[in-house]
Amino acid sequence: MFCPTCGTQLNKIPVETNQGGRFEVDHCPACGGTWFDPYEINRIPLHEVMTLVDHTVGGKNHAVRLKKQLCPNDHLELFPFKGEAVPIGVKLLWCKRCLGIWATQKDLLEFKHHQEETISAYDIGNKFFPTLRTVFIPVITFVFLLAATASTILTLQESQEQRTFAKSQISNLQTDLRSSQSLFMHFNTSLPVSSSIIYGQSSLEMTEAVISSMPSTSHGLLLPNLKPGTDYLYRLKLTDSLGRSFTSDLYSFSTR
Question: Rounded CA gap, 231 and 177, in Å?
């Protein structure tokens, strides 16, 4: 595999997630860019991104920039990845076939700094564990609580990462109340995915309805049989071609 920016052969670098999982990214030692397989860019923590700098020996002045940037896997042209989760001024490129993402060293650092600010699960862990240490409880109970807390933190972080990815995909979300009992919803996604809506009057009573049964970037659905004068909560669920599902933040609409 060769660098889309300067043509240098990419090196496989092992990285570790905050949950202890490990995977490899393809890094350019000359210009410092990194290639990520689908969704890997959301899994790599900021401190691992910082270590990739140590694997860059050439520097940007030693790298020759190619006129056309191609996917290292498919050798197809890369296109700008657009989404609300990508901050202004950050340019990520993606392959429309394999869904991989290419990021320069500078853009990757800025993207992860921005993304880290949106994930608060780390703060939950840092605040909770010191409290446990100050309370005297039997060892068995302590170990149980520690394991349960770690599991909760892991679940919260994975859920936040899913919502962050879903948010980066969804754009132009619009709801149009057609009558007191029906509402039309439409939105676009950066990648072709199937979609559904999970909605209800409370988070404890939710119904799921299919929006796009086949992968698409344009999604629309008319929701019938709604109750007049009622507030609804909903989430959007996206499923990619590999069967991975990502659920959005909680939204709301009203039939008032």
Answer: 12
What span, in angstroms and rounded, lies between the C-alpha atoms of 52 and 61? 18
**Total Cβ atoms within 10 A of residue 113:** 13
Judge contact between 44 and 25, C-beta under 8 A: yes
- Please report whether residue 5 resides in a domain: no
Half-sphere exposure of 189 (CA within 13 A, CB side): 26
Residue 135 lies in a domain: yes
pLDDT < 50 stretches in the chain? 60-61, 121-156
Q: Is the Cβ–Cβ distance between 70 and 76 less than 8 Å?
A: yes
* 185 and 144 housed in the same domain: no
Residue with tokens 């997630």: 17
Q: Are residue 155 and residue 226 in the same domain, yes or no?
A: no
Q: Are 34 and 26 in contact (CB under 8 A)?
A: yes
User: CB neighbours (10 Å) of residue 42?
Assistant: 20
Q: Which residues contact 107 (CB under 8 A, 6 or more apart)?
A: 90, 91, 92
Is the whole-model pTM more than 0.85?
A: no
Task: List, for residues 215-237, the tens digit of each pLDDT value.
Answer: 999 999 999 999 999 889 898 99
Please state, in angstroms and as integers, the Cα–Cα distance from residue 136 to each residue in 131, 132, 146, following that order: 11, 8, 13
* Chain segment 152-183, per-residue pLDDT in tens: 444 445 556 667 778 888 899 999 999 989 99
Gyration radius from the chain CA atoms: 22
